Structure formats: C-alpha cells, structure tokens
Amino acid sequence: AQTVTQSQPEMSVQEAETVTLSCTYDTSESDYYLFWYKQPPSRQMILVIRQEAYKQQNATENRFSVNFQKAAKSFSLKISDSQLGDAAMYFCAYYPQGAQKLVFGQGTRLTINP
Amino acid sequence: GAVVSQHPSWVICKSGTSVKIECRSLDFQATTMFWYRQFPKQSLMLMATSNEGSKATYEQGVEKDKFLINHASLTLSTLTVTSAHPEDSSFYICSVRTGGSNQPQHFGDGTRLSIL
Fold first, then answer.
1. Would you call B106 and A101 a contact, using CB atoms and an 8 Å cutoff?
2. Contact assessment for residue A104 and residue B44, using Cβ atoms and an 8 Å cutoff
C-alpha cells in the first residue's frame, strides 16, 4: 500500500527564519506526483508546490522549495523568510501516475513566532 | 479566482435530518470529483469518488446509504448525509481535478457540519 508519513506533528519557527518540513512516502511506482498543501485556520486547502517524480530538478515557488530525493523517497518542504501568514497545517500528498486518489500524510502544524 | 465552490460553509441541524452539500466546478467540466471528511487535527480521509453520470465509488468503511452522492452534471456533485446523527458532525471537503493525472486537485472551502 502506498503511504505518506509526516514525522513532525508540530513545528515552530521564528518569523523571517527558515523551516523545513519532512515527508517520506512508500511506493513501488516510478512515475508519480508529489504535492504540498497548506490548510490555514480558515480550513481551505491551498496548493503550495508540486513535483513530478521524473524531474530531477527541485521545484520552487517563491519562498517555498522542495528537496526531492527519489531514491530515499523523501520530499521535504523548505519555507524561507517565514511569515506570520505561513502558519497553517501542511499536508504532503502523493499521486501515482494515472491514478485517481491523492494519498495524504498526517499533517504538520506550523507555528510562526513573531 | 476560485476553481471550486462548496455550499453551505456551515450548517447546524437536528439529529435525524438530512443535509445536502453542494460542490460546483467553476469554469471547467469535471467528470470526477472527490469527497473528503476531516476530523479535528487530523488529515483528510477520502470518502468517495464521484463520477459524472455513474455511481460513486466509495472507500472501504464508508456507508453508501448514509452518504449519498449524486453527480448529475459536469459541474455539480452533491453529498447528502441522510438521517444525520451527532457522530456525523465533521468537516466535509470536496475537490476537483482539473485535467490529467499530472494536475493537482483543487479543493472547495469545506462545509462544517454540526448535528445537535
């Protein structure tokens, strides 16, 4: 079975600092997609960043970047220059090629300290 | 702008009533929509995959007769919680995939359901 593990239930960081959220997954597939979603207190799910497994280059979106290690099945999210608005639950998600279902991790609650 | 519209955002009702939640795909046609349930401080749990013009595919452990899904058009899927009880209180979220398998799912804003 495909699983996604986020080993950090909670993380906190000082405003303007950098924080890394970890995510590992288990799969036998070679083609798949990985996503990070953010869920602020409003509970809306917001796509932060995505990565195609066939791409070696790590995805970046402004202050958000990933460290994708395919062999290690690791997909961490780095948030640079943390802002108060980054406070949220962050979910890592895995999506096999041609599949319908997203597989979510348990989530990491990120707190930003002013 | 919003890709998915979900309504209502919050509903409170008495035990035994049925509640309908709508999920609308804006600006594009969605043959597949997804319904999730989320308990406090937990991850999203997929309940069912809603297929336009055919029966929904339910995940193991989800009661088909309790959670009725109708996907009658390419832009609308509805989830009806029948004879709701307090244990059905939860946050329900729908999502839509806008294209091929390499496209992310876009989520509605969710519905907070409270059964008294």
1. no
2. yes
Structure confidence at residue B46 (pLDDT): 94
Residues in B closer than 8 angstroms to A92, CB to CB, are: none
Q: What is the pLDDT of residues A6-62, one digit of tens each?
A: 999 999 999 999 999 999 999 988 889 999 999 999 899 999 999 999 998 999 999
Q: What whole-number distance in Å separates Cα of residue B103 and Cα of residue A2?
A: 19
What is the amino acid identity at position A95?
A: Y
pLDDT of residue B97: 79
Contacts of B101 in chain A (CB under 8 A): 33, 95-99
- Collect contacts of B38-46 with beta carbons under 8 A, ≥24 apart: B38/A43, B38/B90, B38/B91, B38/B92, B38/B93, B38/B110, B39/B90, B39/B91, B40/B91, B41/A109, B42/A106, B42/A107, B43/A91, B43/A104, B43/A105, B43/A106, B43/A107, B44/A45, B44/A91, B44/A104, B44/B93, B46/A101, B46/A102
Give the one of B97, B107, B112 whose C-beta lies nearest to A44's C-beta: B107
Nearest to B101 among A99, A104, A105 (CB): A99
Q: What is the pLDDT, as a whole number, of residue A22? A: 98
For CA atoms B33, B39, B44, B48, the dihedral sign is negative
CA-to-CA distance for A77 and A48, rounded, in angstroms? Answer: 10
The strand pairing partners of A65, in sequence order, are: A60, A78
